[in-house]
Amino acid sequence: MISKRLTGPVLYIANAEEEADILYRTGFSAPGKLVFLEERNGKRHLIVSDLEFKRAQRVASECHIWRLTDFELFGKPVSSLAGSALALINRLKLKKVNVSRTFPYGCASILIDNGVELVIHDKPFYRQREIKSESEIRLIRQSQRAANDAMLAAWRLIKSAEIGKKKLLFVNGTQLTSDLVRAEINKTLLDHNCVGTGTIVACGSQAADPHESGYGPLYANESIVIDIFPRHDRHGYWGDLTRTFVRGKASPALRKMYNAVYAAQKAALSRIRHGAIIRSVHMACEEEFERRGLETESGEGFIHSTGHGLGLEIHENPTLSSSGDKLRAGNVITVEPGLYYHATGGIRIEDVVLVTDTGYRYIAGLKNFFEI
Amino acid sequence: MISKRLTGPVLYIANAEEEADILYRTGFSAPGKLVFLEERNGKRHLIVSDLEFKRAQRVASECHIWRLTDFELFGKPVSSLAGSALALINRLKLKKVNVSRTFPYGCASILIDNGVELVIHDKPFYRQREIKSESEIRLIRQSQRAANDAMLAAWRLIKSAEIGKKKLLFVNGTQLTSDLVRAEINKTLLDHNCVGTGTIVACGSQAADPHESGYGPLYANESIVIDIFPRHDRHGYWGDLTRTFVRGKASPALRKMYNAVYAAQKAALSRIRHGAIIRSVHMACEEEFERRGLETESGEGFIHSTGHGLGLEIHENPTLSSSGDKLRAGNVITVEPGLYYHATGGIRIEDVVLVTDTGYRYIAGLKNFFEI
Fold first, then answer.
1. In Å, what is the CA distance from B191 to each residue of A108, A180, A364, B120?
2. Could you tell me which CATH number the domain at B131-362 has?
3. Which residues of A touch B31 (CB under 8 A)?
4. What ipTM does this complex have?
5. Which tens digits make up the pLDDT trace of B258-281?
6. Of A30, A66, A99, B293, which is the most exposed, with the fewest CB atoms less than 10 Å away?
7. Cβ neighbours of residue B175 under 8 Å, at least 6 residues apart?
């Protein structure tokens, strides 16, 4: 089922916290860089600092753990990760290794200068990452439930706000801001051992920019986009959830956008199943918006993809846009159509689902809200 | 004063959130990769996606902001960041650009194949980052104060614990764990708009591993190393603070270690001033430990450097180990000697100071604790 297989060893020199493939294949994470090498037969090697050696042995028990100081080159102890990688490659008598496009050029130069052939291989290196195991689904669910709880905390806080002069919101006399709601969300995530970085609480025209995390006061009768994407502090799997609230009453234009996004998500979901062409899921959203006369042009409208895979990375394969590839049972994906118009605001609704043979299942369902 | 200057343009293709140089020179941060190019005359360029274009124009007002879609190559619109970087390099008639060792090898290949000469330049590209301005010091102080507050919250929580059977700790009948203390710390950080990732609360033998973040129950009469390193969610500057607590009574061996670490930090601090040789600061700690018969061997003892620069990265220049370089007024550095013995536990004390012409100043002082 997995079509593109690697035909040689894989080499990473990277930060295990930033390179999900290393975490996936070793279970080990550490601040700072390390060397990961997987032989064609699946034998895995990690080269770490003395400081990390014992912990790596304990955590990455299926890997051969080396110390940087285990290696010599040209009769001298090696002092760099690239040097240790070269020494390991020599010891294993490898001529050629696969690296990703992100492989550090400085290390690449050293290896190439010493006769190693580097083959740039397009990610994903481990296509099996796209098909989640039962235990992976359980871990993603933990993070998604954390997001649900945090969304409910935000909902309670915004719902409890009084509408004051100039449509400002107040809770117990304190003016409600993006920062206050974000703090409430991120604190709730911590109760689930999850960390929220970049949590979006964006109101009014800010909500019309999908990457604006939001600042300043929140207002009644405007859309407030809340996008929560927690990462579990222990195992590193992500959740991802978006709801859009209006405290008070939405304008007819906003209401029309909300109805369209809600319908677009339903339409996209209805096409999800094992074997579905990804493009058709994305087009379900586009068609819904077109039918309702909600146009996309000059950076406004439906300006992003319908969703993305979720796992050890917040964005991983498959991406739900105009690809001709097929969804596969075991994919865990977000479905998150949105509409953005600077004059009106932004609306996005996002849920995470597991693709099944016959359709989809919510990873951790949460009801929808709009006017509260 | 700044000795090593770049003699040509600088090119980054990187995630602005991960590459502090880009944040330093643009003020702009975004999830995902972008192109940053600085010409020799200081003129700066950013290439971002359509989605980020308006925000980048607003935030990075000193830079020329390009859209990916602004570029053509060989008569076709470019679709990749490397392609857009190549088109920009051609437009500016550059032949040679400086890149860091971490520059992505995939992008490097494309540029080299199209006749661009890449010069690998050792970081730091911007040595001025080592000398903090008044406004940078103010931002670091915000994060350091957040760490102080969070440490006091942890102190209160651990101090309030009852010592139960098997030396377990209980607060209001709930067993006190690393996770509970960490959640208390990270929540307090959020009240300061700071994010704590990797916060260390490590007890007993876990504390003897400086990179173990800690898990499971906390115990009386054992050392509990608490290392808090918050990053400010808005401006990205870090704080860094470590204290070591014992709830109850420390063994004579632990007490001896604590006294030694405390004295080592004092000795190191006493050598800090503009012009001090970095090695001599690190040696002050080593000598203090040697004098007290606390040896370093086979992964135990004083097994890390004395400290590191702090700013837009948690670890930046200068590193306080055996370098012959000199400290300079305006350096902001941690001073964090520690001792680690598996049979006894770990002790680390860490503060952040500003190097001045005549000595040092705490960025945000906090008293010391030990037995509580």
1. 43, 9, 28, 42
2. 3.90.230.10
3. 198, 211
4. 0.79
5. 999 999 999 999 999 999 999 999
6. B293
7. B168, B169, B217
As a whole-number percent, the residues of chain A with pLDDT over 70 amount to: 98
Partners of A169 in the β-ladder: A163
Q: How far apart are CA B182 and CA B212, in angstroms?
A: 13
Torsion angle of alpha carbons A335, A339, A340, A344, nearest 10°? -140
**Residue B320 pLDDT greater than 50, yes or no:** yes
Rounded to whole angstroms, how far apart are CA atoms B244 and B342?
A: 16
Please report residues of B whose CB lies closer than 8 A to that of A340.
none
Q: How confident is the model at residue B3 (pLDDT cuts 50, 70, 90)?
A: very low
User: On the CB side of B146, how many CA atoms lie within 13 Å of its CA?
Assistant: 28
Residue in B111, B104, B115 with CA at minimum distance from that of residue A106: B104
Give residue A334's Cα distance to chain centre.
9
- Split at pLDDT 50, 70, 90, the class of A2 is very low
Ranges in chain A annotated CATH 3.40.350.10: 10-129
Class of domain A132-362 (CATH, top level): alpha beta
Query: String of b and e for A167-193 (b: at least 16 CB within 10 Å)?
Result: ebbebeeeebbbbbbbbbbbbbbbebb
CB-CB: which of B54, B99, B186 is closest to A190?
B186
Q: Which regions of chain B carry the CATH code 3.90.230.10?
A: 131-362
For residue B203, the surrounding DSSP H or E stretch is: strand B200-203
The pair of structure tokens assigned to B308 is 């590191």
User: Over the stretch B155-193, which tens digit does the pLDDT of each residue have?
Assistant: 999 999 999 999 999 999 999 999 999 999 999 999 999
**A187 Cα to chain B: minimum distance (Å):** 5
- E runs forming strands in A52-172: 64-67, 72-73, 76-77, 96-99, 117-120, 162-163, 169-171
Contact in structure between B237 and B133 (CB atoms under 8 Å): no
Report the relative pairing of strands B223-228 and B200-203 from DSSP bridges. Answer: antiparallel
User: Residues of chain A whose C-beta is under 8 A from some C-beta in B?
Assistant: 18, 30-31, 50-55, 99-109, 118, 120, 179, 183, 186-187, 190-191, 193, 195, 197-198, 209-212, 233, 299, 303-304
What local confidence, expressed as pLDDT, does residue A1 receive? 27
Residue A6: what pLDDT? 67
* pLDDT per residue as tens digits for the range B37-73: 999 999 999 999 888 898 899 999 999 999 998 999 8
Tokens encoding B113: 């194949």
CA atoms of A170 and A175, how far apart (whole Å)? 4
Residues of B in contact with A120 (CB under 8 A): 105-106, 109
Task: Classify domain A10-129 at the CATH class level.
Answer: alpha beta
Contact A303 B50 (CB under 8 A): yes
Q: Mean pLDDT over residues A211-234, rounded?
A: 94
Residues in Cβ contact with B273 at an 8 Å cutoff, skipping those fewer than 6 apart: B327, B355, B356, B357, B358, B359, B360
